[in-house]
Backbone:
């Protein structure tokens, strides 16, 4: 079996950590039980480009239980948990190509290693696997049934590909499922981002000015958790509706030009490029801490920062100190990559339970329906979304009401009024 991980000596530690995460993933465990019996993915070669974490391990184990031959690489150079990668190779015989801290060249070598397996379904997080496939390995495209995409950034890229008419197979936007973005993006990103910032810096959040750039579901989560820890939260936005919502939620809203002068912590969660630019870095006060929790590190203009920097050093793990030409010091966390995975362990497993349940069930859906779909980006089928929510509630011991016959009739009719 071909693979590339840091060391198989880490495998036993990784196995225990995967077991610990799986304990909080009851929905995915139920799906795994059914997959093991029904084998809906028999014959599928599944190429996955995901964050190689304990939760991802539980997902790929589920996919393998369903009959798929899974090949896995990392979707971010700093998000790999090396012991997990080793465990999947040694204990599950799943080819993994991922090493924490790999350089850009190795990152793309790993993507190509997954594509060498000639996948029939892709499972992406950020769309690097799909875009590399479309650019470099077009001969493989005709055999692909379909794919799934995990994150906001990837969905944006894939919709752009579909709009340009270059997307060659259907893809389900798992990120857009209610049981994904309403929970994973908000509660998962919210908690894990603050976790990453605190682990990297050991600085007190209470009493600080915390600037959140972007008020999508991830930004909502980060703002909520920073406020909960006692920060004064400022939101920056370009969308007037989201900005208005942030105001109504009790946050200050202002342009980044103004916020950059007063913030203690900055975190980007927009999915766009160069949100914090050279002029913003120059505005920041001495000691400002800058992090990114969007998928790619392009949200921070690090080249622009280098242009105005006279000295640089690593002062703590995942903390890089930039001394600017104006003598102020700026601290960038995790090389500007996803701080929740670069400096911490990513989302808690109980929230990834729903996200990865979506991935597993959408892979099954693609096997059954992929040949009938157009070459575009689809939402998660409503029945899958609702089934995952139902299973999650059931696992939590929570029961809900059902409509009476009279209520159902009322909601489906137009005759009855006041």
Residues:
């Amino acid at each position: 079996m071909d693979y590339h991980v840091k060391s198989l000596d880490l495998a036993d530690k990784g196995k225990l950590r995967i077991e610990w995460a799986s304990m909080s993933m009851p929905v995915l465990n139920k799906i795994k039980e059914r997959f093991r019996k029904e084998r809906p993915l028999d014959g599928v070669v599944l190429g996955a480009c995901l964050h190689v974490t304990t939760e991802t391990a539980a997902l790929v184990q589920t996919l393998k239980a369903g009959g798929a031959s899974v090949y896995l690489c990392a979707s971010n150079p700093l998000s790999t948990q090396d012991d997990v990668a080793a465990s999947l190779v040694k204990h599950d015989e799943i080819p993994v190509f991922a090493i924490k801290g790999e350089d850009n060249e190795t990152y793309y070598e790993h993507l190509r290693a997954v594509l060498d397996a000639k996948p029939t379904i892709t499972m992406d997080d950020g769309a690097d696997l799909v875009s590399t496939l479309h650019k470099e390995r077009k001969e493989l495209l005709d055999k692909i049934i379909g794919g799934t995409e995990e994150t906001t950034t990837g969905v944006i890229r894939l919709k752009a590909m579909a709009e340009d008419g270059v997307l060659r197979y259907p893809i389900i936007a798992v990120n857009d499922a209610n049981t994904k973005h309403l929970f994973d993006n908000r509660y998962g990103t919210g908690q894990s981002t603050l976790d990453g910032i605190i682990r990297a810096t050991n600085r007190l959040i209470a009493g600080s000015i915390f600037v959140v750039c972007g008020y999508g579901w991830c930004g909502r989560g980060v703002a909520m958790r920073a406020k909960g820890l006692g920060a004064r939260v400022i939101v920056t936005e370009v969308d007037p509706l989201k900005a208005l919502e942030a105001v109504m939620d009790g946050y200050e809203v202002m342009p980044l030009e103004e916020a950059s002068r007063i913030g203690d912590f900055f975190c980007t969660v927009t999915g766009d490029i160069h949100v914090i630019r050279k002029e913003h870095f120059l505005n920041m006060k001495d000691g400002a801490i800058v992090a990114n929790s969007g998928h790619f590190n392009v949200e921070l203009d690090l080249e622009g920062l280098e242009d105005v920097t006279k000295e640089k050093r690593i002062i703590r793990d995942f903390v890089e100190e930039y001394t600017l030409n104006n003598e102020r010091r700026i601290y960038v966390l995790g090389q500007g990559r996803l701080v929740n995975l670069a400096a911490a362990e990513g989302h808690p497993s109980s929230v990834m339970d729903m996200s990865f349940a979506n991935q597993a069930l959408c892979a099954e859906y693609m096997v059954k329906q992929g040949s009938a779909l157009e070459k575009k980006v689809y939402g998660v089928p409503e029945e899958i979304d609702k089934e995952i929510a139902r299973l999650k509630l059931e696992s939590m011991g929570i029961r809900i009401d059902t409509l009476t016959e009279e209520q159902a009739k009322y909601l489906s009719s137009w005759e009855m009024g006041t």
Notes: The first helix runs from residue 11 to 22. The CA atoms of residues 124 and 296 lie 14 Å apart. Residues 8-180+347-395 form a domain with the Rossmann fold fold (CATH 3.40.50.1480).
